[in-house]
Fold each of these.
Amino acid sequence: NAGVMQNPRHLVRRRGQEARLRCSPMKGHSHVYWYRQLPEEGLKFMVYLQKENIIDESGMPKERFSAEFPKEGPSILRIQQVVRGDSAAYFCASSPRGPGQGNEKLFFGSGTQLSVL
Amino acid sequence: AQSVSQHNHHVILSEAASLELGCNYSYGGTVNLFWYVQYPGQHLQLLLKYFSGDPLVKGIKGFEAEFIKSKFSFNLRKPSVQWSDTAEYFCAVNLKAAGNKLTFGGGTRVLVKP
C-alpha cells in the first residue's frame, strides 16, 4: 500500500504563473488535508477536503488559492498568479476517516517545495 | 536515508502522570525540529519548535522538548498530563540547508485516562 504521494517534489515558477500541486492519498482514504510551511515557521493548516467536497477552507488565502478533490484522481492545490511570498513547502495528508469518526490518523506526504522566482 | 523515528506508537497513562515521547532523527546536518499535536476532531497544531539557541524549548500547554545533538534526539515532555492531552503527537525535522521540507515521524497516540 503506497503512502501519500505528492508531486512534483520541487516546483519552480516565475511570478505570475500558475502552480498546480498534486496529492494522491493512501488507498482507501477519502479525507485530504493541505498544510503549508513557510520558511522558518511551522506547518499551517490550509484546507480539508473529502471527495468532491471542501469541508473546511478556513486556512486558505482568500485570493488566488483553490483546492479540489474530485471523485477520480488526485487532490489538486492550485495557486494562480504566484508571488514570491508563496514560496513554501506544501504538505498533503490523508486519513481514512474524518474528525469525530474515530481513528482519523493522518498520514503525510513528503511535500512539494514551491519556489517562486 | 534520512528518517525520523518515534519510539512509541501508543501510550496510555493516568492523569497527573509524567509524559515523555521519544523522537530520534538520522540527519547529518543542521536541523530544525518540531513537535505537532492533533487533538481528536481537530487539525494539526504546532506545539513547539527548535531552530537554534537554548536546547530546552518550551511550548504551549506546558509541553517542553530537549534537543540533544549528540544523541540526535528531540524528546517531548510534560510533567503532569491532563485528560485533555489525549491526542496524537508528531515529531518532524527539516534540514536547514534543504529549505523547509519536513520529514515526519510516524506519530504517537497518547491516551490519558481520567
Amino acid sequence: AQKVTQAQTEISVVEKEDVTLDCVYETRDTTYYLFWYKQPPSGELVFLIRRNSFDEQNEISGRYSWNFQKSTSSFNFTITASQVVDSAVYFCALITLAGTYKYIFGTGTRLKVLA
Amino acid sequence: DGGITQSPKYLFRKEGQNVTLSCEQNLNHDAMYWYRQDPGQGLRLIYYSQIVNDFQKGDIAEGYSVSREKKESFPLTVTSAQKNPTAFYLCASSKRQGAGSNQPQHFGDGTRLSIL
C-alpha cells in the first residue's frame, strides 16, 4: 500500500521562527517521486519541489530546505525565518512509476505564522 | 501567461440536480486531473485523463462523470447520485506521466460547491 502521512495537522509559530513540516511516506516501489505543494488561502496548490527516490541530496531554496531520508522514509520541509506570507496549508505527495501515476497526497499541515 | 482556469469559483446545487464544473488549460498538457478536497482529508482523486478521449476513475469516482473531448478541457459533472457533494474541487494538469519521468501537476484556483 502507498501512503503519505503528515502527522502535524496545524502548527503556529511566531514570525522569524524556524519551522519543520514532517512527511512520512510508505511504498514498496523502488522508483518514486516526492513533492511538496503550498496551498495559500486563495485555494490553488503551488508546486514547491520534486525529489526522486535515487537522489537523497538535501536541497535549499532561499528560506526553504528539504531533508530527504530514505532510511526513515521521510521528506521533511523546513522554513527558516518564517514570514506571515508563509501561512498556508502544505501538502506532501507521492507518485510511483510502478503504479498508475496517481498522486497520493497527505492530509496537509496548516501553518500559521503570527506577526 | 499559461495556466489553468476553473469556473465558476462558487457553485450552488439544488437537491437532485446535476452541475458541471469547468476546467480549461492552455499549458499544452496531455494529462488532467480532478480532485476533491474536504477539511482534514487532503486531496482525493476523482478522475484523471492521460490523453484526449481517454480517462480513468480515481479513488472516489462514484457520483461523478467526466469527458475529455479536447486536450485543453476536462469538465467534471457532479450528478445527483453524489450524495455529499459539498466540497472544494481542484483541477490539475501535467505533462504526460510515463516510465522514467514524472511531472509536477499545475493546479487551478478551485471551485467551491455547496448544496442549497
